[in-house]
Amino acid sequence: MKIIYKTKHDCKDCSNDLCAKTVPIFTSLSHDEMSQVVSLITRKHYDKGEIIIREGEKLEKLVLISKGQAKAYRYTTDGKEQILYIFNEGEFFGEKNLFKNSNITYNVETLEETHLCMIDKANFQVLLKEYPSIGLKIMEELCNRIEKLENVIENIGTKRVEARVSSVLLEFGEKYGKKHSKGIVFDLPLSREGIANYIGLTRETVSRKMNHLQEEGIIEMIGNKKVIILNKMALEESVQQ
Amino acid sequence: MKIIYKTKHDCKDCSNDLCAKTVPIFTSLSHDEMSQVVSLITRKHYDKGEIIIREGEKLEKLVLISKGQAKAYRYTTDGKEQILYIFNEGEFFGEKNLFKNSNITYNVETLEETHLCMIDKANFQVLLKEYPSIGLKIMEELCNRIEKLENVIENIGTKRVEARVSSVLLEFGEKYGKKHSKGIVFDLPLSREGIANYIGLTRETVSRKMNHLQEEGIIEMIGNKKVIILNKMALEESVQQ
DNA sequence: CGGGCACTTGATAGTAATCAAGTCCGGTGG
DNA sequence: CCACCGGACTTGATTACTATCAAGTGCCCG
Lengths: 241, 241
Known about the structure:
The structure is a homodimer. By secondary structure, chain A is of the alpha+beta class. The first copy, chain A, has 10 helices and 13 strands. The structure holds a DNA duplex.
């Protein structure tokens, strides 16, 4: 179920709190400039588990996540899915189409209720010209993304399987973790299968390895979604070799 | 052995043929503009097997490869190297430092005799302001690099081992291949071990899988470096599943 | 309370890593 | 020109590990 809403009231909200301000690429703009940006924004709302866009489709917009999160993944020829990114609030996708004429190369599916801001390709190019600082921010963000991908490659290319699991737990802890009397607590954004598809394993192996980490007293699982990192040092050591 | 040379003669060469023109990010410039760019360029020459820069060092320049090629890699904690890129003529690195203050995250080592053009961070930022088209080209190139990395991840994350070998052979065939009566012929830019470090395997496995492809009549190896793709279709099918 | 789905656990098989000899090839020196 | 040397590559045997297949189990939600 997709609801498109664009009313004056919404846009006012937006310029105050909602989308533009949460998006790093606009942080260098003044309030007035941001209002101008906001006037170009279309917004959409998705429930959990909806597909925003599919591999191979044309996307003539830059899409910014103002609230929620989504996974980007591809299907390989043997039907497995490989997760490439977990996009969080403030992150964007579709940038490729702004600079070259290509279709999108991955599926994007929401992991929870998600609000999107979208800017038309043509409009965005005007913005880029008018505010060069946005271009710099985009480049910075692209570099960040490259860095992330380089880390993923190091992970799945060379590390032992248990190290990959530890690594992804640390990543989630970093992103979503809150302090807790026992350590760092967070909800897993992905199912076991999702984690497996993120680090190139099967769900059974992920299950076993997480269990092993729990037996060693390094983490504690509460239900399926909640994890407490009891011993961050040990988890980091497990990544180290 | 590093030779730094910067004479009027060299720069003249450069503006005509050598560095700036082979570098895509400058292709949109006029001849005069390019001359201006060239005046900001320092150049260096490296022999095969030299280290250009090491992980963790500061690099206050954008480095463009005007001739030759180099591999970028990281050492993992267990001492393996993971190759991230093979930079070819016209490609660049060090862009991360232009937009944010970070050290370089990989080693770069030449694979053959290599000529570099380097532009100082400060100078490059002036260029960016003066010629916004360079910024667009950079973004395009960053998007290309992201695409490459996404493919690498799909490769090593989900594909069967032999498919990865086939995939890398196709990649090299695409990049370096020349027509030949029997098919597509090219020199491998990397040793068996290098290939292994590129696709997350061991040298023995690479050896065995390449042998297998040869036994099946899909490729032919001449010595250690030269490969002929006899049956490109079959190689592509091998990647497909 | 029941149904379904995600997760866990166990047994087995397949495959690549590892360990260990060789072999090939290019370069060097006699 | 040939013999030798060393490094890269190949090949074989064994081991270790994860994928796969197959039952369970537990939990959430109506």
